[in-house]
Design brief:
The protein is α/β, with parallel strands linked by helices and 392 residues long. Helices cover 33% and strands 18% of the residues. The chain has 12 helices and 12 strands. Belongs to the peptidase S33 family.
């Protein structure tokens, strides 16, 4: 691997500033034999400094992006929903939903992470409210949905059905899908189940819910980077139960004693919140002290991870890429994402080279990190331009 630095050759923009401006080129090389029998190197990955638009891994910029050299990369102002409601999706579960932005705009559904994370008002800000009809909803047991932290009738396939029920309830023929972390998992699974209902996708912090990903984060891999955050998570579990932390936490998160549930939920949630940013984010870490949030977040996450996402195989999502290969998609990944390491985004990119792959070189996992936020907003702008230019 070779790390190169070159002078900036891009036009200046009032939205972007860096002094002195640089482009960081990260080049993976492999030898090729020349006609004279010698060796030469060829590169196939370049990533720019996040102060400028990150170049795709493959040279597959969409036509609309080539035509429009500068796009907004800043969050839109905070807005309030113009309608909210609750939709009964089973004899047990009711999910909260809301709509904001333009009621006649292009529909986009935001799929939150976790599982169990719920939505927040800031999620609306990734989308141009004059162009998009923005739909947020809380998945079963999360956020404002009821019953709170409930694991019964709560599987990936139930959530996919819920998304379809919500689309039909809102009388939306098709929509754009936006999801990060577990939201990327569910976005992929939903789109593979209903490819004819998806106009485009934006995926962030790729999580394919494979055993090696769970083991990395919950069985000691990420502890090599965050040993200080890991020890409280580890020390809640007696040494004789540390053969599988996911199973040990399952026992406590489903205890008959609510105090034990809360204690385990706080430890589980704080571990994730302390590792979600490249640089510590105090406000994010404080979410682990909220018992209401932590209980849903930890119980539902653990439930899905113990059950391997309810997928028939470890490679289920990668095996079905052909079903969605035609959908305009952008993948955004932080280089130093500890929660969902880049190996998963890279595997998805290799299986789906047609998708626009953006690597943010100085970011971790959170959508709220500056470089990732900028790429997510720009990806929405790109799809917006494609829709606007259709038929022109």
């Amino acid at each position: 691997m070779r790390l190169g630095f070159g002078p900036n050759t891009l036009p200046s923009s009032p939205l972007l500033s860096v002094s002195p401006p640089l482009i960081f080129s990260l080049q993976f090389s492999h030898p090729k034999t020349t006609s004279s029998g010698g060796k030469r190197k060829s590169s196939f990955l370049r990533v720019q400094n996040i102060d400028y638009k990150i170049e795709p891994v493959a040279s597959n910029l969409m036509a609309s992006e080539k035509e429009i050299p500068e796009m907004n990369r800043n969050l839109y102002p905070q807005i309030e929903p113009y309608s909210t409601g609750f939709l009964g999706v089973s004899d047990l579960h009711t999910i909260y939903w809301e709509q904001s932005g333009n009621p006649s705009g292009h529909p986009v559904v935001f799929i939150h992470g976790g599982p169990g994370g719920g939505t927040s008002p800031s999620n609306r800000r990734f989308f141009d409210p004059d162009f998009f009809r923005i739909i947020l909803f809380d998945q079963r047991g999360a956020g404002k949905s009821t019953p709170h932290a409930c694991l019964e009738q709560n599987t990936t396939w139930d959530l996919i059905d819920d998304i379809e029920k919500l689309r039909e309830h809102l009388e939306i023929p098709e929509w754009q899908v936006f999801g990060g972390s577990w939201g990327s998992t569910l976005a992929l699974a939903y789109s593979q189940s209903h490819p004819d209902k998806v106009t485009g996708m934006i995926l962030r912090g790729i999580f394919l819910l494979r055993k090696k990903e769970i083991d990395w984060f919950y069985e000691g891999g990420a502890a090599a980077i965050f040993p200080d955050a890991w020890e409280p998570f580890r020390d809640l579990i007696p040494e004789d139960e540390r053969g599988c932390f996911v199973d040990a936490y399952r026992k406590r998160l489903n205890s008959d004693d609510i105090k034990i549930q809360y204690e385990a939920a706080r430890a589980w949630t704080k571990w994730e919140m302390m590792t979600a940013h490249l640089l510590p984010n105090v406000e994010n870490i404080k979410r682990g002290d909220d018992d209401n949030f932590s209980l849903a977040f930890a119980r539902i996450e653990n439930h899905y991870f113990v059950n391997k996402g309810f997928f028939p195989s470890d490679s289920c999502l990668l095996d079905k890429i052909d079903k969605i290969r035609h959908i305009n998609t952008t993948i955004v990944q932080g280089r130093y994402d500890v929660c969902c390491p880049m190996m998963s985004a890279w595997d998805l990119h290799k299986a789906w080279p047609e998708a626009d792959f953006r690597v943010v070189p100085d970011a971790g996992h959170s959508a709220n990190e500056p470089g990732i936020t900028a790429e997510l907003v720009a990806a929405n702008e790109k799809l917006k331009n494609i829709i606007k230019n259709k038929g022109n």
